[in-house]
Design a protein that fits this description.
The protein is α/β, with parallel strands linked by helices. The protein is built from 11 helices and 9 strands. The termini are close together. 48% of the residues are buried. The structure holds adenosine-5'-triphosphate, 2-(4-methyl-thiazol-5-yl)-ethanol (TZE) and magnesium ion.
Length: 280
């Protein structure tokens, strides 16, 4: 008998949302979705700061509660900034999330991702295609998007095994691969999450937001696995409510309704009933 995700993480599901404190998250991220990310943090009652100049880190890191490193738009300056912040987070014991945006597309991003992994961040995430590439498997991802071909049952089983092998070398890191099914793999176990709607693949920044919200949850006492499972489940349930409401609207309306739910769904205690997922 497999255990449902809400049974495995029962305490976290009961107590996390709405947040009781306002964790401050520094996001070093891409200019495409930076505004959506900052607002998404505010909608769940966290606080964003988008600061990426290494000279600021000594003072900044005394204030922040967590760090998000997103590889979405690399420039020479941002590359230095991501690498410096990753090291700084390890030195100052700040929880950190690495989002491997575009890792399936170029060797340069793959190399930066691997360098950031050496700091043993709490969470390394990407879409299914990015995570396949990162785990050394064949990937059909293009640009920053995941590919349907990488979502088959066989491909997911192969990815689970490859990520499990990575946790042997990186036992303090939880790996998240997002898509129609989301895979969570850590040294403690493997889980599959099944919420969400296909429209989530049709506006940009959904994965970026999941990364930032995960960083916020890491800093309020949740374990790596709890933070990942709670964030993906909550975000995807918000999208399910938005899709049900958006009978006549287009994707822009769906986007707005999804973001709106970030500040609303937490007050409905029964959102947890919507959660689908299980231990593997
Ligand atoms: N077809 C789908 N069905 C259900 N949920 C989905 C689907 N596609 C994506 N999601 C959900 O949307 C969120 C983002 O996942 P996705 O894999 O699209 O990230 P991404 O490619 O990194 O996004 P972006 O690059 O736009 O930030 C996750 O919570 C995931 O579960
Ligand atoms: C479209 C796009 N290009 C670089 S980052 C980004 C946003 C999704 O991560
Ligand atoms: Mg992404």
């Amino acid at each position: 008998m497999t255990q449902s995700i809400t049974e495995v993480f029962a305490d976290a599901f009961k107590t996390t949302f709405p947040l009781k404190s306002s964790p401050l998250v520094d996001c070093i991220t891409n200019p495409v979705t930076i505004e959506s990310m900052a607002n998404a943090l505010l909608y769940i009652d966290a606080k964003p700061v988008m600061a990426d100049l290494p000279e600021e880190f000594p003072k900044l890191f005394t204030q922040i509660d967590a760090l998000l490193l997103n590889l979405g738009h690399i420039s020479p300056e941002r590359k230095d900034s991501l690498l410096a912040a990753g090291r700084y987070a390890a030195e100052t014991h700040k929880p950190a999330v690495v989002d491997l945006v575009g890792v399936a597309a170029t060797q340069l991003r793959y190399d930066i991702g691997q360098q950031l992994l050496q700091n043993h961040p709490n969470v390394v995430k990407g879409n299914i295609s990015e995570m396949r590439r990162f785990a050394g498997l064949k990937s059909t991802g293009r640009g920053v998007d995941g590919s349907q071909l990488d979502q088959s049952a066989t491909a997911l089983a192969e990815l689970t095994k490859a990520l499990q092998e990575l946790t042997e070398r990186f036992p303090n890191t939880t790996f998240l691969a997002t898509g129609e099914t989301d895979l969570v793999v850590s040294a403690k176990g493997q889980w599959r999450l099944e919420n969400g709607v296909p429209q989530l693949d049709r506006f940009t920044g959904t994965g970026d937001i999941v990364g930032a919200l995960t960083a916020a949850l890491l800093s309020i006492g949740l374990s790596n696995d709890e933070a990942v499972v709670l964030t993906v489940s909550y975000f995807n349930c918000c999208a399910e409510v938005a899709a049900a409401q958006n009978t006549a609207g287009g994707i822009a309306s769906f986007r707005e309704k999804t973001l709106d739910q970030l500040s609303l769904l937490a007050d409905q205690a029964d959102w947890v009933q919507m959660v689908k997922g299980e231990a593997l």
